[in-house]
Design a protein that fits this description.
Keywords: Lipoprotein, Membrane, Palmitate, Signal, Transmembrane, Transmembrane beta strand. The chain has twelve helices and four strands, in the order H-H-H-H-H-E-E-H-H-H-H-E-H-E-H-H. It is α+β, with helices and mostly antiparallel strands.
Length: about 450
């Protein structure tokens, strides 16, 4: 056997081994949903009523206006919209590579030589090329680009949901703060009147100076709480301005103490059905599909590329002949290119694509589990909050009766001013506790709306 034959045989064997190593790597696509979602959720899918409320049920005219302003000027939304535009441009770039590529070039020159004198040259050449996609590589690249657009659209929806949720949350915090301020200011005015009465009774020798001091301390404490609430409200007002993308000094929200807090009980659909609409689940699913496509592309790299080229042109040393097109030429060719030896680079790329796909499977599984946990936790917190509110209302009724009885006994001289002050303070604390519990319940509803992936209307 000659040296040339040995070389050819060696190259053929080496290429076969290299391609066989690449083709032996496989990836099994799994159905994550069936493995994660418990069977009892599938069985009761038809038995659980649908959620019939959304973000709009929390709105009032002021909040609706705040949301409308934020949708036009929010920096986060603008950033997400720009990212979507970039993804669409990338898709157009990928799509433009699917068809025939054309190129045209022309040249004119003049050459001066000592022995023969000057000569002119003119040329006009055109080229067209098309890559035959036997293996579906271009379609897979187009699908990946389409998934990028989908992810950008979902990220825009996430920014929208997050913006509305933060606006609703912050707005109702201000509502509760204004209601607490109204309660404390009313209580402060009553305390000031009571202090005058206590001083009169002290002057008459009916009570001690300690009762006067206790009431004065109570008044100062109420003033401090009012001041703290004003500072906290200002902070929330600044946050509302930032969410709308406007300077804080140009935004001011009027008193909202007369706004009623909505009390909504959200009933979820079965988690299997609801979680299919969660933005993070959709992104995880799209990333998983993209990783499968990238793995297929890496596997397809072992196949040759077929490219068809057509070249045509007109050349002449005289401008008159060039215009007539007397000297015309064209060529057509089919080029087949395949990389045979690459020191294992293709095999490593396939392995990397497989590992990435397996990572996306894990990420998808984690997203599903986290989403299910968030829904269950929010539902549990919602029912717990409703129970806590009932208990707080019962405690308020009891405290109101006790406060009235203490006030009556104080008028009759049966209890001290300190006892009355203590009961008045307890009543205000209980009223504030109910306001806070209502706010907590509302925050739980917001949390559940986000956990269920419910989109605000645009």
């Amino acid at each position: 056997m000659t040296q040339a034959s040995l070389t050819k045989s060696f190259l053929a064997i080496a290429c076969s081994i290299a391609l066989a190593g690449c083709s032996s790597i496989s990836l099994k696509q799994v159905n994550i949903e069936k493995k994660i979602v418990p069977e009892q959720w599938r069985e009761r899918q038809q038995n659980i009523p649908s959620a019939d409320i959304g973000w709009e049920d929390l709105h009032n005219p002021i909040l609706t206006k705040l949301i409308a302003n934020s949708l036009t000027s929010s920096p986060d939304l603008n950033s997400a919209e720009l990212a979507l535009r970039l993804a669409k441009l990338q898709f157009e770039d990928t799509d433009s590579q699917q068809g025939i590529n054309y190129a045209v070039n022309t040249s004119a020159g003049y050459t001066e030589r000592k022995d023969t004198g000057g000569s002119e040259s003119f040329s006009l050449n055109g080229q067209a090329s098309y890559e035959v996609d036997f293996w579906g590589k271009k379609n897979k690249q187009l699908d990946i680009a389409q998934l990028r657009i989908f992810n950008s659209e979902i990220n825009l929806e996430i920014a929208h949901i997050t913006l509305v949720a933060n606006l609703v949350d912050t707005y109702f915090e201000i509502v509760v703060q204004d209601q607490r301020l109204a309660l404390l200011n009313s209580n402060l005015q009553d305390d000031i009147k009571q202090l005058a009465m206590i001083k009169a009774r002290h002057k008459a020798g009916l009570i001690t100076s300690l009762d006067v001091a206790n009431k004065e301390v109570e008044i100062e404490s109420t003033k401090a709480r009012i001041e703290d609430l004003h500072e906290s409200r200002q902070s929330n007002e600044t946050r509302l301005a930032n969410l709308q993308g406007i300077p804080a000094q140009k935004f001011q929200l009027a008193d909202q103490s007369q706004v009623e807090l909505p009390e909504l009980l959200l009933v979820a659909k079965t988690p299997l059905e609801v979680l299919r609409h969660r933005p993070d689940i959709q992104i995880a699913e799209a990333n998983l599909k993209s990783s499968y496509l990238n793995f297929d592309l890496a596997k397809d790299s072992i196949f040759p590329n077929l490219k068809l080229d057509i070249n045509t042109g007109v050349t002449s040393n005289k401008l008159s002949d060039f215009i007539k097109g007397d000297i015309f030429s064209w060529t057509a060719a089919a080029n087949v290119a395949v990389l045979l030896l690459d020191s294992g680079a293709r095999e490593r790329n396939i392995k990397r694509a497989k590992i990435n796909a397996e990572q996306q499977v894990t990420s998808y599984r984690r997203s599903m589990l986290n989403a299910l946990k968030e829904v269950e936790d929010a539902l549990s917190a919602q029912y717990s909050g409703q129970r806590q509110l009932k208990i707080a209302n019962a405690q308020l009724n009891s405290q109101q009766r006790l406060t009235r009885e203490t006030a009556l006994k104080y008028k009759l001289g049966a209890v001290s001013a300190f006892d009355k002050i203590s009961q008045d303070r307890a009543l205000v604390n209980q009223q504030e506790s109910i306001l806070q519990q209502k706010l907590n319940n509302l925050k739980t509803t917001i949390r559940l709306l986000r956990a269920l992936g419910i989109r605000p209307t645009k």
